[in-house]
Amino acid sequence: MTLAADAPALLYQRADWDFDTIRRIHDAIERVAVHELGLNVYPNQIEIITAEQMLDAYSSIGMPLFYKHWSFGKHFAQHEVGYRKGLRALAYEIVINSNPCISYIMEENTTTMQALVIAHAAFGHNHFFKNNYLFRIWTDAEGILPYLEFAKDYITGCEERYGQAAVERVLDAAHALRSHGVHRYPRKKVPDLASEERRERERLLQAERTYNDLWRTVPGKKGKSKAGLDDERRRALLELPQENILYFLERTAPRLQPWQREILRIVRLMAQYFYPQSQTKVMNEGCATYCHYRIMQRLHERGEVGEGSFLEFLKAHTNVVCQPSFDEPGFRGWNPYALGFGMMQDIERICTAPTEEDREWFPDIAGSGDAMAALRDIWADYRDESFIAQFLSPKLIRQWRLFHVVDPDEEPYVRVAAIHDERGYRRVRRALARQHDVGWLDPDIQVVDVDLAGDRRLVLHHAVLNGILLDENDLSPVLQHLADLWGYDVVLKEVETEGTVAKEHAAGARPLLS
Amino acid sequence: MHIIDRRLNPGGKSLANRQRFLRRAKALVRNAVRSDSKDRDIKDMDRGGEISIPLRGVREPQLRRSAEGGIREHVAPGNKEFLEGDEILKPDAGGGLGSEGSPDGDGDDEFRFALSPDEYLDLFLEDLELPELDKRQFLDTESPAWRKAGFSVSGSPANLSLTRTLRNSLARRVALKRPARDELQALEEEIARVEREGGDEQRLAELREELARASRRVRRIPYIDPIDLRYRQFAPYPKPVAQAVMFCLMDVSGSMTEHMKDLAKRFYALLYIFLKRRYRHVDIVFIRHTHEASEVDEETFFYNTATGGTVVSTAFREMARVIAARYPPADWNIYAAQASDGDNTSSDNETTAALLRHTILPLCQYFAYLEVGREEEQAGFMRHQSDLWRTYEALRDAEEGFAMRQVRKRGDIYPVFRELFARQSGAEGDAR
Questions:
Q1: Is the dihedral of CA B46, B51, B53, B55 positive or negative?
Q2: Which residues in chain A are closer than 8 Å to B83, comparing Cβ atoms?
Q3: Do B17 and A472 touch (CB under 8 A)?
Q4: How many Å apart are CA B296 and CA B287, to the nearest integer?
Q5: What is the pLDDT of residue A126?
Q6: Could you tell me the pLDDT band of residue B250, with boundaries at 50, 70 and 90?
Q7: Subunit contact B70:A467, Cβ cutoff 8 A
């Protein structure tokens, strides 16, 4: 059989794959991704797993190894039932932000699906992880796997020393506060998980080296009265107000044991590691979906993917980017794949075939001709909220017929505040961006004051937005956890914008097992 | 790029997490299993399955905004008719446009998941204990278990112990002064150096001789010699085997309705499952009786009808015969459960009581009499007492290992069963 030079052979012909096929597909995709699209990726590591292993991975937040906790068992049980009943299909892949970038792909995928998954995860997501500023600031792709191993061993060690129940108590409490265990603004130090591990080991060694039982017998000094310290100064010393509650507890909680602090730290660092993902769902998926679409299209053009396979790909792709209207039965809010992919394609259109309107709205990129360059910049420098606020075009707003409604709880009506018209574009865009802003989605809760020399009551404020208070069913157990960790009373005040306290919740400490 | 095939990695990675979860939700899961088992067919009992527990028991609380109150904003796609400033009446059901949904995805307050058969039965039979578990027989007819028994000099290649073998080999090589590879290498280098520098012939000859000697030595002393070989050895040892036989006695005369047989069957099935978990080997003997008794198979026992009078003592005689023939009480733990509607020919009552007291009970670990009644019958104050009940009542307090209960409804079976086998505090026996 002879082939013309410009018509490469099909990469594969059959639906079942073997390792050679996967390697061939990966190499072909790499050619397109790196040389034509200019993606910049971590080296890839592709791991083939079974459905059961996928379920395993689900229950430990997609990580290859993780410490043990009952909540992961619960999630496993939940997913398993859904999967067994056929209610829920499993994801085709899971990809981990690490270096090398690990993608899990399922064994039962067809060859076309493996190609799609490799293009999507091993190149799309991989590029995004490596280049997006949030991931660069907040995560340490080199150190994550060793750190997870350290965390797992550390927690197992604690369980052996202090008992499962005691460790579980601390983990439960830390998990409850996990959403408020992240730094939202970058600090001076770049995260480096390897030194985390070293730090803990050194601290222990130092404690062992300098241990002297005599100190225990020395009578303590009478505490100097710090009443003279004024409030301002006191708060400044404790870095108050502080929105990272776990960080505050780890540093300041008076009664925690060192190992308990370390567990808080582990949970906090994991939350921090996942923090960028929650802010970039639309962009991350949009980037990956756009990449797999371009790559598969290109492979098809080059004759490396057959017609039938391409049709199979298109079917899967269309399912992924489906966005039902608000009045259709399948509507479950926004599909980040659809929104992201739609916007990426729209940006490509603006770069290559702009209208007058586009030139007016996006003077920087309209007609630039090089869509990939524009997209690469965008993927590097934006998160969902800023991305939508900048790049949602009037054309897309019209195409999707977006509208903005305001829903005051006490009134029987919802009001349509803006629609897809000249007056509404900016307002719709603003509102949709808000909808993707973690700053608006997560309640703003801060530790505002504590008098360490006095009754040590911890005071927190929730800055109420739009009159929406905290969910009380959840609040009281979380507050109880907080009080347990803190060791003294805790009070949380829900403060309206005008400064009035809408509600006050309190909890007293119970002894932590240790 | 690396491709790694993880499919052969050992599964069950999340088992530890699952156990933690079950332990955490134990009380909830146990209740769920108990209520679930009520509606289940007995034969499905050891199949595991899906149960649901209230979500609030295993919630993971987070600080989040309430789903109600305040002013909310949404942007949604698919506007067809709305203009700015329109007001839309909210649907009564709440939720409405772009409802936020609970973080768990489904707003259910039930949490459903599947239990494995073992987990199910563990919870189902929790706290139950068989009385009188002291008789245990060591039988070497049962297949013995194997355990490690040191090392031997012969064995199959699969059992080769590499560590031991190489340890021996190393010791032998050191003892016999087998030249190491780097020594040979050093010699060769030395020769090469001397040759290159054109050193004196005699030194060269010496070196060559030394090398030859070393090489001969290497050839003569093998790296691994047959005398180094060590194999892991396994030896059989007798494992204590506890075995039990369970006698199912049932009156199958015309007065026993299908409902009654069904109740009896459920009780037997529970007892069987229970024994099965406590003993490695459980035999079942089915004895049915009318005015005469015979040992039958399960199918006949439950589904074939027979006609005739009711003489209970015949069943006991048959049971005693079977025990004498096949189940020496010294080797077997004997359990018996009798189900009847309580009828007996009045002239037989004396004989029955005497047989039970003097022949059957001394042989049995435990004897349960289950009187099954019609569902519609009321268990009232002026309850009618059957012949058999009255006959047995005298035994109830006098004899240990004898219990009697009345059951009318399916739902009663399990509580009665639990009552009979509830673990007595302080009397912890373990038959495992």
A1: positive
A2: 416, 419
A3: no
A4: 6
A5: 94
A6: confident
A7: yes
Residues in chain A closer than 8 A to B51 (CB atoms):
none
Q: What is the pLDDT of residues B338-373, one digit of tens each?
A: 888 888 887 888 888 888 888 888 888 788 888 887
The upper half-sphere exposure of residue B62, i.e. CA atoms within 13 Å in the direction of its Cβ, equals: 12
Please tell me what DSSP assigns to residue A110: -
Chain A residues touching B11 at Cβ < 8 A:
50, 52-53, 56
- Cβ <8 Å between B62 and A179: yes
C-beta of residue A56 within 8 angstroms of C-beta of residue A94: no
Q: Are A474 and B61 a contacting pair at CB < 8 A?
A: yes
- Provide the edge-to-edge strand list for the sheet that holds A501-507: A444-450, A458-463, A490-495, A501-507
Q: Quick one: which of B336, B341, B342 has its CA closest to B361?
A: B336
Percent of chain B predicted with pLDDT > 90: 3
Quote the minimal CA–CA distance from A275 to chain B in Å. 15
Residue of A nearest to B85 (CA): A416
What is the C-alpha separation between B100 and A333, in angstroms, rounded?
Answer: 8
* CB B18 within 8 Å of CB A71: no
Its ipTM equals: 0.78
pLDDT tens-digit readout, B185-239: 998 888 888 888 877 788 888 888 988 999 998 888 888 888 899 999 888 776 6
Cα atoms in the Cβ-side hemisphere of radius 13 Å centred on A155:
22
Confidence at residue B379, expressed as pLDDT on a 0 to 100 scale: 54
> Which residues of chain A are modeled with pLDDT < 70?
1-8, 85-90, 187-191, 220-229, 513-514
For residue B13, the chain A residues in CB contact (below 8 A) are 53, 56
Determine the Cα–Cα distance for residues A179 and A176; give it in Å rounded to an integer. Answer: 8
Q: How confident is the model at residue B155 (pLDDT cuts 50, 70, 90)?
A: confident
Q: Which residue of A has its CA nearest to B111?
A: A78
Q: Do A23 and B83 touch (CB under 8 A)?
A: no
Taking only the tens place, the pLDDT of each residue in A91-141 is 778 888 888 899 998 888 889 989 999 999 999 999 999 999 999 888 888
Kindly determine whether residue B66 and residue A469, on different chains, have CB atoms separated by under 8 Å: yes
**Residues of A in Cβ contact (< 8 Å) with B102:** none
Structure tokens at B397: 């307090």
B82, closest residue in chain A (CA to CA): A416
Amino acid at A454: G
Q: B180: Cβ–Cβ under 8 A, 6 or more apart, which residues?
A: none
Closest CA to B314 of B266, B356, B365, B264: B356
Nearest alpha-carbon partner for A379 in A272, A282, A278, A274 = A282
Domain ranges of chain A: 19-132+280-309, 321-439, 442-507
DSSP H or E stretch at residue A494: strand A490-495
Judge whether B142 and B281 are in contact, CB under 8 Å. yes
Give the pair of three-digit tokens for residue A320.
């992924």
A25: tokens are 């597909």
Helix (H) or strand (E) holding A25: helix A19-30
Domain ranges of chain B: 20-58+109-126, 157-234, 243-421
Architecture category of domain B243-421 in CATH = 3-Layer(aba) Sandwich (3.40)
Query: How would you label A167-205 residue by residue, b for 16+ Cβ within 10 Å and e otherwise?
Result: bbbbbbbbbbbbbbbbbeeeeeeebebeebbeebeeeee
Q: Write down the pLDDT at residue A33.
A: 92
DSSP 3-state helix, strand, coil percentages of chain A (rounded to 5)? 55, 10, 35
- Are A47 and B6 inside 8 Å of each other by CB? yes
- Angle made by CA atoms B151, B153, B158, in degrees to the nearest 5: 75
